[in-house]
Amino acid sequence: MAKPGYRVFDTTVGEIRRMSPHFVRVTFRSDDLRDVGWDGPDQRIKVVLPLATTGFGDVPTEADWYSAWRALPDDRRNPIRTYTIRDARPEAGELDVDFVAHGDGGPASRWIAEARPGDRMLIVAPDATSDEESGGWEWRPGTARTLLIAGDETAVPAACAILEQLPADACGAVFLEVPEADDALELRAPAGVDVRWLPRGDTNTGYGARLVEAVTAWADAWAPAVPTEAAAVADAPIAVGGLPALTDEDLVWEVPDAADDGGLYAWLAGEASAITTLRRHLVRGLGVDRRRVAFMGYWKLGRAEG
Ligand SMILES: Cc1cc2nc3c(=O)[nH]c(=O)nc-3n(C[C@H](O)[C@H](O)[C@H](O)COP(=O)(O)OP(=O)(O)OC[C@H]3O[C@@H](n4cnc5c(N)ncnc54)[C@H](O)[C@@H]3O)c2cc1C
Question: Ligand 1: distance of its center to the CA of 222 in Å?
């Protein structure tokens, strides 16, 4: 049997750095991480959170870890949450993850509030020693000439990693909605990519409101240049791949294959309602070919991930 593209890595918290009021960078370390893979800039991983009762005692580590984990009784099944590789240095056995600190409402945000160097953490991540592709990444702009990246704070780690890996002549716009102005992180972007941080601050606008407003305005201004001849295929099914599906019934996730005819490529990620609104505006409102829009509405206000 082929070695799976993902496996469980046994790691230790090395360093914890508060980057801003709501971003906390954790560097995980272990010899095991020398085999960690990073197949695409928005590479997703799973963090397995310890249970107060059993710690990591029941976490399956075999090749088919996911089925074994699903089969565990509720009280012995460790919570698993999805994150993004912010940076990886396999030669040093290190992996960085930027966690959004959003209070004590979920097991991951509780964990980050209490994490200390030396804590153990299990991470499901691509296995570089496998011949299988992880499939856990979606940034596929192909030959697109204009890039649109939009997301909330949960998408900032992926957006930053994508920007760092863009060619110097890339062009486009990036909109990142964050809780407050000080959450605008330092990042490296090509000169032709306009990055705009959108702090919610105390404007009392809900999640995604500033993002929807800014991206809609940008898209409306840009729309005349969008080729619409392919819009007739707007309802053709698109393959969905990657890690085992999240169980949230409100998940909206659709990713196209690489765009191969220039034009626009949009990557939208974050809270499901805002991302759905944006996707609708681009595809239905402006006639953008849906094969140009990767949209990942992967968390929903008021619902836990798993
Ligand atoms: C592909 C992918 C990549 C991701 N990458 C990252 C990443 O790099 N960094 C990151 O921080 N998150 C990332 N996320 C989002 C993260 O998985 C969710 O925010 C997750 O719900 C956090 O788990 P939790 O245990 O803290 O909260 P849950 O138990 O899932 O939810 C508890 C409550 O908190 C709310 N909630 C969840 N997330 C947030 C939030 N960010 N702000 C406010 N309320 C929230 C929920 O609506 C719910 O009411 C990613 C998600 C996906 C699918």
Answer: 31
